[in-house]
Amino acid sequence: xxxxxxxxxxxxxxxxIASALIADGHDVRLxxxxxxxxxxxxPDADWRLADLNRLTAQGDWAPLLEGVDIVVNAxxxxxxxxxxxxxxxxxxxxxxxxxxxxxxxxSRIVQISAAGVAGNDSDFMTSKAEADSALLAGPVPAxxxxxxxxxxRNAYGGTQLIRMAAAxxxxxxxxxxxxxxxxxxxxxxAAVRLAVAADPPPDAPVxxxxxxxxxxxxxxxxxRRWLGLRDWRRPMRLPRPFLxxxxxxxxxxxxxxxxxxxxxxxxxxxxxxxxxxxxxxxxWLDRAPLTLDQTLAAMPSGKQDRLMAWATxxxxxxxLALGIMWLVSGIATLADIDRASAVMRQTxxxxxxxxxxxxxxxxxxxxxxxxxxxxxxxxxALMGMVLLAGGYLLLGTVLLPALWADPLAPLAKVLxxxxxxxxxxxxxxxx
Length: 431
Fold this sequence. Notes:
By secondary structure, this protein is an alpha/beta fold. It folds into two domains: 3-301, Rossmann fold (3-Layer(aba) Sandwich), CATH 3.40.50.720; 315-428, no CATH class. It is 51% helix and 10% strand. The strands form three sheets. It has a seven-stranded parallel β-sheet with strand order 3-2-1-4-5-6-10, sandwiched between helices. Helix 2 (35-41) links the parallel strand 2 (27-32) and strand 3 (46-49). Helix 1 crosses helix 7 (185-197), helix 6 (158-167) crosses helix 8 (216-226) and helix 14 crosses helix 15 (351-371). The model has no long low-confidence stretch (mean pLDDT 91).
């Protein structure tokens, strides 16, 4: 069997492709930029570091391509953010890959692109289209697969937005009505399996889309039924200005590392519709692609799916509430630090030491609250909150147990903040 290199092997699509090709017995090398997470997914695989932001020159690819016969590129980036550039990842790096494959003896490239790249001027779609054209015209045979809205067990980007909307207790549909064609992740994997073995490869992109078109409200309603939730009585349409504000806020938060499903590229992909040639999909698969209902029926949901969809929808509010509580606590303490340090003096600690301990605690509260705004600092902030709040609780219980009987319940109120931080912590996993 040929040796395969799978780029983006920790991603939504890439991880499923990797799992399938490994199960098929292929000799596989996996590449991603988070090796620690990758090795937890596939501990026995040959993993290599690959950050496409830094692989934009032909020579950068040589170590990754050594001994490789076929490259499957499932890497992608929905929207630029600090340290991540859509054009570098999806165009420059892929063009360099095509040239490098010629010099290293790679016989085929399988490119996972996106349906609807023609006529869409977002940097996500434009970079995909330019990379596709370069590969098809390049020196190494390439198969470009263009899936529609991919539906799988996990969710990311637009599909995460759909599950969040489906879990809400009230029907709130985005004002997006363009037709969308879905494709099962299982069909995408099947198409890649065929692409690895195809001989000769086609000389044009292959769309991977379903034969049905859906409006976004219908897709959300189908996911709500899949989650096992009752239909809404009176669903409402979200006013477009509210969606615009949410998109702009999400894009701004993207500068702090947050990859919200409400960022403009994700919403634009749904707003512009997702079209493609369903007949080409049937021809490539040699069968009809799965319908949306068949796709959902093949992966029955459970309690964990309902909880995760609901928790994801509530996550921004939970982080905001936790941040406000810690920020207000720190600011209020600094605003009346003498009164706050008087409580500390009741334990027998001297006036000077009490003042500095109170000041230090207030500054720590504010710092932890502000850290929640930056995605990469959220996990350390949450763990810091648990430890600091636990310290407050322990010291207060030992030194001032009477605070448990205080009508304002200063110690009792610490408990919910600890529990909330612990609940949010596992949701901060990248995938």
